[in-house]
Design goal:
Elements: H1 6-27, H2 34-41, H3 45-49, H4 55-78, H5 86-100, H6 111-123, H7 127-153, H8 163-184, H9 189-201
Domain HTH tetR-type: 10-70
Organism: Streptomyces althioticus subsp. attaecolombicae
Keywords: DNA-binding, Repressor, Transcription, Transcription regulation
Length: 206
């Protein structure tokens, strides 16, 4: 029997996750059945259950991947000199997600923002997913705190600034933009940059 390569296993796992993401974004988590996922990815039940035990494990895996991608983007940015300011970094984080997960719905709408809403909603009733999100967001807060420290080191932020409070505010800003996209349609990257830059300018002399 031929040995299946790790590359093949990874590609099959990616296929299943991407197909499940489309289903969840299109119809919602609870309205999606595993049969819907099987049809979307055009695989047998055995092929899918080899990787995931059910919908709960699928959505937890999707959420973990997204959070890890955001964390990696922030950690890489923190190593830049000078560090990119939030008006650059917020659009970049969303652009990175769009590049890595470009799938759209039948309407042409980018599915990622809708998927985020589904993950948040399900986390209110699913303790396992809540734990996954709590761990992921803790890592993102740490990464944002690292960004804030890099701003301090570059003289862009006062030394007495609360880096954890800033991290929470920046997470809320990204979440808010994503929620607007899910509810009201796409937002041009320039709008994200301009809006964030305007917030950063409050209190500065004109």
């Amino acid at each position: 029997m031929a040995r299946v390569s790790q590359q093949h296993l990874d590609a099959r796992r990616r296929q299943i996750l991407d197909g499940a993401a489309v289903c969840f974004a299109r119809n919602g988590f609870h309205a999606t059945s595993m049969q819907d996922v099987l049809k979307e990815v055009d695989l047998s039940a055995g092929a899918v259950y080899r990787y995931f035990s059910g919908k709960e494990e699928l959505i937890a895996a999707i959420a973990s991947e997204v959070l890890e991608t955001v964390r990696g983007t922030l950690e890489q940015a923190a190593r830049e000199s000078p560090p990119p300011t939030p008006d650059v970094l917020v659009p970049r984080a969303l652009a990175t997600m769009r590049e890595l997960r470009p799938a759209t719905l039948d309407t042409g709408e980018w599915l990622f923002p809708r998927l985020m809403i589904q993950v948040w909603t399900e986390s209110t009733r699913n303790p396992h997913l809540t734990a996954v999100l709590a761990d992921g967001y803790a890592k993102i807060r740490t990464a944002w705190s690292g960004m804030a420290q890099s701003y301090k080191d570059a003289g862009l932020l006062p030394e007495d600034a609360d880096v954890d409070a800033m991290a929470r505010a920046m997470i809320a800003l990204v979440q808010g933009f994503a929620a607007q996209m899910a509810l009201f349609g796409d937002i041009p990257p320039q709008t994200l940059a301009d809006g964030t830059r305007a917030l950063m300018a409050i209190g500065r002399p004109t």
